[in-house]
TrEMBL record:
<dbReference type="GO" id="GO:0032259">
    <property type="term" value="P:methylation"/>
</dbReference>
<keyword id="KW-0489">Methyltransferase</keyword>
<dbReference type="InterPro" id="IPR001537">
    <property type="entry name" value="SpoU_MeTrfase"/>
</dbReference>
<protein>
    <submittedName>
        <fullName>RNA methyltransferase</fullName>
    </submittedName>
</protein>
<dbReference type="Pfam" id="PF00588">
    <property type="entry name" value="SpoU_methylase"/>
</dbReference>
<dbReference type="InterPro" id="IPR029026">
    <property type="entry name" value="tRNA_m1G_MTases_N"/>
</dbReference>
<keyword id="KW-0808">Transferase</keyword>
<dbReference type="InterPro" id="IPR051259">
    <property type="entry name" value="rRNA_Methyltransferase"/>
</dbReference>
<dbReference type="InterPro" id="IPR029064">
    <property type="entry name" value="Ribosomal_eL30-like_sf"/>
</dbReference>
<dbReference type="InterPro" id="IPR029028">
    <property type="entry name" value="Alpha/beta_knot_MTases"/>
</dbReference>
<dbReference type="GO" id="GO:0008168">
    <property type="term" value="F:methyltransferase activity"/>
</dbReference>
<feature type="domain" description="tRNA/rRNA methyltransferase SpoU type">
    <location>
        <begin position="121"/>
        <end position="263"/>
    </location>
</feature>
Length: 272
């Protein structure tokens, strides 16, 4: 059973995991280095625990203590009860959902470990917007993608905003970072995957014609918002595919495009 501790000093060192949550650069450096991430909101905290993440501590406003009572009773980590005003001073913003948890990260698997059992993979290049990362992971989970591979410069899927937007789906889809880019794509191909680059380029084949759901193993490549996939990534692909557009629209937000493409990749997927 967790120890419920009332804290009334914003400088209390026990709250250090929650300091400056709106300072993106600070949190980007600090969280991976210290092996932690922040789960925000009751549903996300519960999903993190259900998928095996260990809790370091929890920060609750008073009215959320009863809501999270079962979690408090189950975990050994300390639970800090604070006034909303103090939570805002520590974190840097108004904690609307009233519940935060500092969770311990797990070691990331190697990419070849994921590729050994996957059949439908997402490969992201330079997607550094946390909202887009979260949206893509949520769609990947909902539409049956097996794993996600990230180029070295992609944003952290466990950053608070990514986790929140994904509604905890980042905990459900395994992911790994590719160390060498785009050279690491050779390993994806060698594992039996056909590399499909999603691009609005007119030279690309319609994703309907490409029929990725009929392929045994598919790696769908997505680029950053605006810039799209780099020339090097496009050249490394086996084929370019596009989503047909109407009414003069040239492209979709990468999160929306990912959802459409994932559906095309997974539709008619044979049973494992």
């Amino acid at each position: 059973m967790a120890e419920l501790i009332t804290v009334d000093d914003p400088d209390d060192p026990r709250l250090s995991d929650y300091i400056g949550l709106t300072d993106v650069e600070l949190r980007r450096r600090r969280e991976p280095a210290e092996g932690l991430f922040i789960a925000e909101g009751e549903k996300v905290i519960r999903r993190a625990r259900q998928t095996g993440y260990e809790m370091r501590s929890m920060l609750l406003s008073a009215k959320w203590v009863d809501v999270m009572r079962d979690v408090i009773d189950e975990v050994p980590a300390p639970v800090y009860a604070v006034a909303p005003e103090l939570a805002e001073r520590v974190t840097g913003y108004h904690v609307h959902r009233g519940a935060l948890a500092s969770m311990q990260r797990k070691p990331l698997p190697a990419s070849d470990e994921l590729l050994a059992t996957a059949r439908r993979v997402v490969v992201m290049e330079s997607v550094n917007d946390h909202t887009n990362i979260g949206a893509i992971f949520r769609s990947a989970a909902a539409l049956g993608m097996d794993a996600v591979l990230l180029s070295p410069d992609c944003a952290d899927p466990l950053y608070r905003r990514s986790v929140k937007v994904s509604m905890g789906a980042v905990f459900s889809v395994p992911y790994a970072r590719l160390e060498a880019w785009p050279k690491a794509l050779e390993g994806v191909r060698e594992a039996g995957f056909r590399l499909l680059a999603l691009t609005p380029d007119a030279k690309a084949t319609s994703i309907d014609e490409a029929a990725p759901h009929r392929l045994e193993r598919v790696a769908l490549m997505l680029g950053a918002e605006g810039d799209g996939l780099s020339t090097q990534a496009l050249m490394a692909a086996d084929a370019w595919v596009r989503i047909p557009m109407a009414h003069g629209v040239d492209s979709l937000n990468v999160g929306a495009a990912a959802a459409v493409a994932f559906y095309a990749v997974a539709t008619g997927r044979p049973e494992s």
